[in-house]
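The pair is quoted verbatim below.
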Amino acid sequence: MIREGINYLDTRLCYSGQKCHKIPETLVKLYGAKVYTLDLSFNELVTLRGLEGFPLLRELILDNNQLTDNIILPYMPYLQTLSINKNKITDIEGLLIKIRHNLPAINYLSLLGNKACPNQLSDISNDEEDYQRYRYHVLYHLPKLKFLDSSKVDDSERIEASRRGKFMKIVKPKQNELGGDNLSPIISNYTPLPRTIRSPNDHKGMYSKCKYKYTGKHSEGNRFISNNDL
């Protein structure tokens, strides 16, 4: 049994910072049928096998894991929020196909800190124009998104995405770039989640209750400010 690391409250399940490589079967058996929010951040997940055992999920937090382009997303008809910051995803096209086919209700998506998201967190050579092209491309494929990464989707951006997003295909990083040998190092203490492991008691929505800021190439990056800091 793994009850020591489990925090469950009011349809919210947190199993964060446990260094697990896969979703424990115990979580699925004990809580799968009654969980709306699942926080698996700060683990070492390399697979999402078992996620199909949470059929009612509305919010899924997978930040700071080891997930790659090989992940399989099960069909989750109610999932509205997917946060997958700081993983190892490089292929935005493949991920968008999976999301479009398997997450029909998705409204909120965050991919910060992955190579697939070309902003300063993934490569210091990226600038605001690179990131905006990426946003148009994602919004073209997922037009129902209300929030993408660090900012809300406005009407003008949605219109521009429908007009030009199809032609803004994002180039997948070359294999020799993934290790960062040819890139300038990013000196940052950034993390897309609070620095302490959360429990359901202090759960805060990652989008609707936080402020975000992206100011381009020389900014410190998308800082997440909680309600307590406002």
Notes: The two ends are 40 Å apart (CA to CA). Strands lie at 7-9, 12-14, 37-39, 59-61, 81-83, 108-110, 147-148, 151-152. The first strand starts at residue 7 and ends at 9. Residues 180-194, 203-230 have pLDDT under 50 and may be disordered.
